[in-house]
Amino acid sequence: MKPLLVLGATGFIGRHVASRAGDREVVTTSRRPGAADLRLDLLDGDALREALRVVRPHAVINCAGAVAGSVSCLVEGNVTTVATLAEVVGDTRVVHLGSSAEYGRVTEGVPITERDEPQPVGAYGVTKLAGTALARRLPNGVVLRVFNPFGPGSPRTSLMGEVATQLGSGETEIRTGDLGAVRDYVDVRDVADAAIAAAEAEVTGVLNIGSGTATLSRDLVTDLVSLVPGRTLAEVRSGSERSAAVPWHRADITAATAALGWKPLYPRTASVGDLWRSWCEEEGC
């Protein structure tokens, strides 16, 4: 059986995709030397073409991308790399990870379907939508629009990673921005399972990948803070502009369930608990 080629395999989602492939052979890539099976700059079309020739993958799962930085960095990470892949991949199966940020502001209380028109409100969402447009032109490609992933290994730069870092530092008051936004938080392991399922499925277009549940960010953070006795939560600053501009998101995952035979398995409490345990194992508690 041909292997899966995981691009961006040292990132948050990519690590979980690589680790959850079961008996499938996986070849991983990263820009950092020694961090994966192959060192690969996704802006280098010749190098990517050669990697595809050598690996001969059954499918490419593109977990690479930029979540922050200047507009030029976001364009490079979320658009140019996808354009490079599109130029060299041919008819190889491609699973590209998009983002719920592509949808932007939506009608509150109405789950988002793939038929809803994307209206991103910031540079990140705009660049992810452009990458999605390129990926949708591939003859054998599918885009998974991932909502808000969290769980074991959450990056320090993410909301839950930042809170875990404060908890681990011994701070008694956990300080955050405004937590009034409602989001569809989905366990990163469920996202990884969806990506692997999509590599095997004969489906194209766009599929929403989320929990199908709307969760107040404050409730999610409170779940984590409550795991450490004696800690209190204080929302001491404004939230991000993106959160303020997009107050509510919830995915309709009906299409993904039907197309992939997939559904999210991890309840919120398990995801939060496993996040904290993984942080303690890596950092010490």
UniProtKB/TrEMBL annotation:
Domain NAD-dependent epimerase/dehydratase: residue ranges: 5-210
Pfam family of the protein (one): Epimerase
Organism superkingdom: Bacteria
Gene3D superfamilies for this protein: NAD(P)-binding Rossmann-like Domain (3.40.50.720), UDP-galactose 4-epimerase, domain 1 (3.90.25.10)
Protein name, UniProt field: NAD(P)-dependent oxidoreductase
Organism name: Actinocorallia longicatena
